What does this fold into?
Amino acid sequence: MKRCFSICVSAIVVLGFLLTANASNAPTGFAYRGIKGWCWTPEQYLEEIPHLREFKMNFLMNCYGSMYTSAPGEPWKNEWWKPMTHERKLAYSRVIEACRENGITFCFAFHPQIFSPRPLNPESAADTDLFFQHYAWAQAQGVHWFSVSLDDVSWDQNGASHGGAIHAKFVNTIFSRLRAKDPSAQLIFCPGPYWGDGRDAKSQPYLEALGKDLHPDVYIFWTGDGVTTQHITLAAAESYKSIIRHRLFLWDNYPVNDGTPTLHLGPLTGRDPGLCKVIDGYISNPMATQNELNRLPLATCADYAVDPLTYNPDRSLQESIDRLATTQPQREVLKSLVALYPGFLATGGGTGANPVRDKFKAMLSAGDKKELQTFIQKAKDAATGLARQFPNEFVNARKTVEADIAWMNQQISSRHFSNP
It folds into this structure.
C-alpha cells in the first residue's frame, strides 16, 4: 500500500512538473514588441528610443516613407534607385547605434514602388541590384533585421497567383543576399493583400502562391481583420496564417493619423488576447508629427504587447498618464485631451477622423450657440493647460488642438444664431 501511495505521489509530482513546464513555455506576450515611424525624421526616432525601452518594447522599424528623396513639405517622391545621401546615412547610423545602446532591435525598411516615378520591376536584375544597395549599407552598419514592402501597389496585373510568385522570387533574392553575409539575418515582407482572413477570391491565390515559393524563414506583415480596424481577431489571424504558411508580425494601425490634423489618444482596445499564440511580433503605427504625445497611447499598446492576457485598457491609460505627468494639474490636462480625442478605436471612423470637429459639426446643426461656445472653451482650456503645464513638450500636438479651435471659431462666426 505504501509503495502504491509512493507511486501515485511521484506521478502527481511529475504531472505537476510537466504542466508547469508547459505553462512556462506558453507565450504570455509577443516576442517582438515595437513601433515603426510614420515618415518620421531621424530626430523623431532618436527622441522615442529611450521611451521604447521604458515601455519594455524591443523593436524599431523605420518607416519606408522616411527614405523618400523628397524634402519635407514637398509631394512625396520615392527615387529608390538613388544612393542615400551622406547626411541620411550619418543620421541613420546614429539611430542604429542608439537602438543598440538601448537594447532595441533596429529593422531597416524600404519600399521600391510606392510614390515612385519609376517603380521597381521585380523581375529586373538591374533594378534588384540598385534596390539592394540600401540593404547592403544597413547590413554594413550591423543591422540584422530588414523589411521589404510591396503594399498599396498593384500586384495582380497578370493574375494574382503570378503576382505572388513574382514577389516571392524578388524577396527571396534580397533575403539570400542578406544571409550570404549574415546567416542570422531576418526579413519581414509586407505583401499586396496584407489584411483580412486571406480567403477572398482576389487575395487567396496571391497568398497561396507567395507562401508556396517564399523562403520559410521570412516573416509576413499583417494589419489584422482590416487595414484599420476596431477589432483584430484570433480567427482572422489563424485563417490568414494558414493560407500564407509563414510567421506573422502584426502591423497595428493605431494610433496612426496618416499625417492628418487630428489626435488619437485613447488606449488600445479590441485586440484579441490570444493573438500572441499565432503572431510573433507586434508593431504599432504612430501619429505623424505628434510623436511626443504619441507616447500616451503607445504605452498602452506596449502593455498589451507585453502581456495581452492581463491587459486592461483603462488601467493602462491611467498608468500612461501617470508616467508622462508628474503633478495633478498635468494629469488633468492629459485627461482632458483624451476626452477630446479618444481615438478612432473608440469613436469609429478612420485614421483621419477628428472627434472634435465631428462633434462640433453635430452640435452646429442643433444651433445652440452657448453650447458651442462651451465646447470651444473646453478645447481652449486643454490647449492653454498643455502650454502652461508642459511648456517645452507636445508642441505639435498643441498646434493640432489650436488648429481645431481656430476652425471652430471660423465656423461659428459664419453662422447666424437665433439665441445670443
